[in-house]
Amino acid sequence: MSSAASVLIHSSQFPETVRRDLLASLRTRRVNHKFHYDSVRQTGKWLALHEAYSPTRNDADCRAIYDKGFAAAAAQIRSRRVDVIGLGCGGGQKDTRLLKLLKARGKAVTYTPCDVSAAMVLTARETVLAVVPEEKCFPCVFDLATADDLQNVVWEGRRAGDPNYFGTATRRPSRDVARLLTFFGMIPNFEPQDILPKLAALMRPKDVLLFSANLAPGSDYAAGLKRILPQYDNALTRDWLMTFLLDLGVERRDGELKFAIEAGRFDLKRIAARFHFRRARRIEVENRRFNFKAGDSIRVFFSCRYTPERIHKILARYGLEACHQWIARSGEEGVFLVSRA
Ligand SMILES: C[S@@+](CC[C@H](N)C(=O)[O-])C[C@H]1O[C@@H](n2cnc3c(N)ncnc32)[C@H](O)[C@@H]1O
């Protein structure tokens, strides 16, 4: 393995843009969740948390729904060449399992791990190297919610690393390469109206999308949310989420992080974590000051929980159709095979 990696970084993650997004988070008192994956330390904390709590790591049945989704996606793809585009790839574990299966089925695979965090795409790259050689792996860093030229971003990544990916005349991706997009565990942390138009715009008519979401278990939606609250309100999650505020100079004794269930748009409920200040604190970012008084709060994080019906409905609203689904017996996670409606 070479001692260097090429990573394409889109302007949506250039320092000036990230600074602007940080100021917006402090001004609106709603932290953009991308800031919880910014540093190597935060990435490490999230990966530890994921290892400890993610059902895909700890529940064989949950792993099985992914395996079924992977097999169905592989069966749907006729082309021999497949590019897996991992949107919000995280540590790349799920994408790596998918790529392994595609390879075992005789596909020639390439991998485009995409994430807002450079540390994450590099971790995903490292994970996948057991299955995909480094010259077939094209890491991209961009903000999925704000990059408005996503098709080009993904293509640019290939232009840099893999000239064979393109048809020579058009400089557009060759049509005999099937594209399989993954969007695992991403939807809960975005406002659906912000992210789903982006996802829909990124999909070409024949693209296949594997999509997963954390769900509220059981037939009583509100009761289901109460049941999964402890998966958020725990020491590892608190430690991970507090890193953002502590790095900005907030002290633990300035207040308390509280988790609650809140109602959102589209008949969706979410777990929200807010830091409630019990004493005044000024946060300074370069020359900008943000004053918090005792009694003020800032929303640090939220996670929308869906039901399978709510997933179908929200995808349909943005021209996407979930043709197949696999739901864990726990009712807490679902995998959906999606195409353009
Ligand atoms: C909950 S993790 C899911 C990771 C992985 N897909 C999985 O299922 O294990 C969310 C991932 O989304 C990334 N992320 C957060 N905001 C993003 C954004 N605006 N654009 C792209 N990636 C983002 C984070 O860095 C993190 O890797």
Defining traits:
single chain; 341 residues; binds S-adenosylmethionine
How many helical elements? 11
Give the helices and strands as they follow along the chain: EHHHHEHEHEHEHEHHEEEEEHEE
* Overall helicity: 25-40%
Name the hetero compounds present: S-adenosylmethionine
User: What low-confidence regions span 5 or more consecutive residues with pLDDT below 50?
Assistant: 166-171
Give the integer mean of the pLDDT values: 91
List how many beta strands DSSP finds: 13
Biggest β-sheet, characterized? 8 strands, mixed
Q: What shape does the CA trace take?
A: globular
Name the strands of the widest sheet in spatial order. 1-4-3-2-5-6-13-12
Strand residue percentage:
25-35%
Structural commentary:
This protein has 341 residues and is an alpha/beta fold. The chain has 11 helices and 13 strands. The chain has an 8-stranded mixed sheet with strand order 1-4-3-2-5-6-13-12, with helices on both faces. It has a 3-stranded antiparallel sheet with strand order 7-8-11. Strands 9-10 form a two-stranded antiparallel sheet. β7 and β8 form a beta hairpin. α2 runs antiparallel to α10. The longest helix has 17 residues. The site of S-adenosylmethionine has 17 residues, from loops.
Secondary structure layout:
Elements: E1 8-9, H1 15-28, H2 40-53, H3 55-58, H4 60-76, E2 81-87, H5 93-104, E3 108-115, H6 118-128, E4 140-141, H7 150-161, E5 177-184, H8 192-202, E6 208-214, H9 221-228, H10 235-247, E7 255-263, E8 269-277, E9 281-285, E10 288-292, E11 297-305, H11 308-317, E12 320-327, E13 333-340
Parallel strand pairs: 1-4, 2-3, 2-5, 3-4, 5-6
Antiparallel strand pairs: 6-13, 7-8, 8-11, 9-10, 12-13
Helix pairs in contact: 2-10, 4-5
